[in-house]
Amino acid sequence: MSNPLHLETELTFSNRFTQELPADPLNTLESRPVIGALFSDVNPEPSPAPSLLAYSPEVLELIGMNSEVVKTPEFTHWVSGNLCLKGMRPHASCYGGHQFGHWANQLGDGRAINLGEIKTDRGQHFTLQLKGAGRTPYSRTADGRAVLRSSVREFLCSEAMHHLGIPTTRALSLVTTGRSVVRDMFYDGHPKSEPGAIVLRVAESFTRFGHFELLAHRQQHALLKQLVDFTIRSDFPEILGDEPKDNTGRWFEVVCQRTAELIVQWQRVGFVHGVMNTDNMSILGLTIDYGPYGWLENYDPKWTPNTTDAAGRRYCFGNQPGIAGWNLTQLANALYPLIGSTAPLERGLDLFSQTFEASWRKMMAQKLGLMTFKPDRDEALIERLWSILEHLEIDMTLFFRTLSQIAPVSHAIESSEIAQRFEPSFYRQDLTTSGDIERLTNWMKDYLERTSEEALTPDQKSAMMKAVNPRYVPRNYLTQMAIDAAEQGDPALIHELLEVFRHPYDDQEDVQRFAQRRPEWARHRAGCSMLSCSS
Ligand code: AMP
Ligand code: MG
Q1: Residue 301 Cα, ligand 1 centroid: separation in angstroms?
Q2: CA nearest neighbour of 10 among 120, 174, 173
Q3: I want to staple 77 with a disulfide (CB 3.0 to 4.6 A). Which of 16, 83, 323, 326 is the partner?
Q4: Could you give the CA distance from residue 324 to residue 262 in angstroms, rounded to a whole number?
């Protein structure tokens, strides 16, 4: 049996953020504005009866920990906030942000506690962070805790995103704390006691747009400059030239490019973040803060999983690119005092649009099995497809996966064949027999004609498409089923789904039940079709 010392030899803490940036001189938990500092020292709240529900073997490997370590009680205690390892410097960071389009002032890590930054044997740096480990000076009136349902969602989705090839923060572990947490899930006067849980998250950095915005808002320009320089040095070494010069503008361009690439990836797989506030935007272009996110089922650009957003639909699927641009504009405003001219910032914002456009076209061409995107033809073809998927209520993921299996054919494809092939992706029960199916058949004829111009064998085309059209995504109802079982004490479905999501582009015939359209029971069920920020 290993002891805490064993765990301690596993990790080397480098703690650049806390060593190089100023700390809050107070160390109480009292909610307060923290001025002139980037973080507050704070210890996780102990978990009374922690139990390890799941962990990610890949993340364990990534941070250089021995796989045997998870079997020790010390590991469970450590990831539950009960064990402080040598070299750790637990802290909560201070940031602000625009929420739903309005400046919200100081927010900060209200229920995230960074344990510290490690440096692995491979020379990589990672910050380790507990989400749900209790109050910090940024918790305002809340408790700093997280419930099991939201923690299962964060754990499963962040790992699934990674395996889909999408930049994301990672999740090492999921524990229940043994403490109940009271939440009013839909803010409608029905508070309920729920199991408390903690996810240990891992990322190169958890810095958000809002870290920079808050310093700019407070006109702390020297500190703002210090944070920009620190971020470039730590996470963007590629833009550091040989001569010392101010590279803030160049850095902003890279942030714009990374953000554009990230959103293209979300649009590719039908991921809707749900709360794209600037405090939830990673400066590294990672998917961060899995709250009321969701996955498109029937294609609907207006769909938002977040009930808080239902009226305005600011964060619906189709708005994500525009909102990312808006968020970058807020970041540009924050950086303006350091640069003193708008040109470099405008260049960055232009680069966002250009990168998004070019990457989106490339991505769509791949989704459709086309070697090159021909704007004059393909734009209209794609527009027609979106309209069909939307109005005929077709499952986006299943549609593209089925399409990946359709070889270019010389003979005319009949409606009946289309109906039969695509039926598993239809939500409208009458669709196969309705006249509307003709719209899909006609589109398919034009599509197959277009693909027949490409010099690809059917197998090559299919392989290219399958590599970007996943079969398995964390459908809202699947995760909810895993939550229901976990709340009854059975984490087996979490493990099973984690395993399936490790290979989202493989056919995995034995688990095809996880590749099915949303069942009818899930259409209006909480957690499956609507989610709130309460977590
Ligand atoms: P979010 O909407 O999750 O991005 O959170 C916005 C802000 O509220 C951040 O400052 C969070 O740290 C804080 N927050 C959210 N939930 C809690 C909670 N249960 N306890 C303390 N702070 C929270
Ligand atoms: Mg957040």
Answers
A1: 27
A2: 120
A3: 83
A4: 10
> 111: CA distance to ligand 1 center in Å?
6
Q: Per the domain annotation, does 244 fall within a domain? A: yes
Any residues with CB less than 8 A from the CB of 318 and at least 6 apart, and which?
Answer: 301, 302
Number of domains comprising the chain: 2
Question: Is the pLDDT score of 341 beyond 50?
Answer: yes
Asked whether residue 237 is domain-assigned, the answer is: yes
Distances (CA, A) of 506 to 470, 522, 527: 8, 25, 27
- Out of 348, 366, 384, a domain closes at 366
Query: pLDDT tens-digit profile of 177-193?
Result: 999 999 988 888 999 99
Nearest CA to ligand 1 atom 8: 110
194 and 245 inside one domain: no
Structure tokens at 459: 């197998």
Residue nearest ligand 1's atom 6 by CA: 107
In a domain, 526, yes or no: no
Collect all residues with Cβ–Cβ distance below 8 Å to 504 and sequence separation of at least 6.
160, 163, 164, 470, 471, 472, 473
Residues 270 and 132 placed together within one structural domain of the fold: no
126 is in which domain, residue-wise?
5-206
**pTM of the predicted model, to two decimals?**
0.97
